[in-house]
Amino acid sequence: MKTYHGSCHCGSVRFEADIDLGAGTSKCNCTICSKMRFWAAQVPSSAFRLLAGSDTLREYRYHTRRDAHYFCRHCGINTFSTGDSPALGAFHAVVLASLDDLPVEELLAAPVRYLDGRNDNWVAPPADTRHL
Question: Is-contact 33 117, C-beta < 8 A?
Answer without folding.
Answer: yes
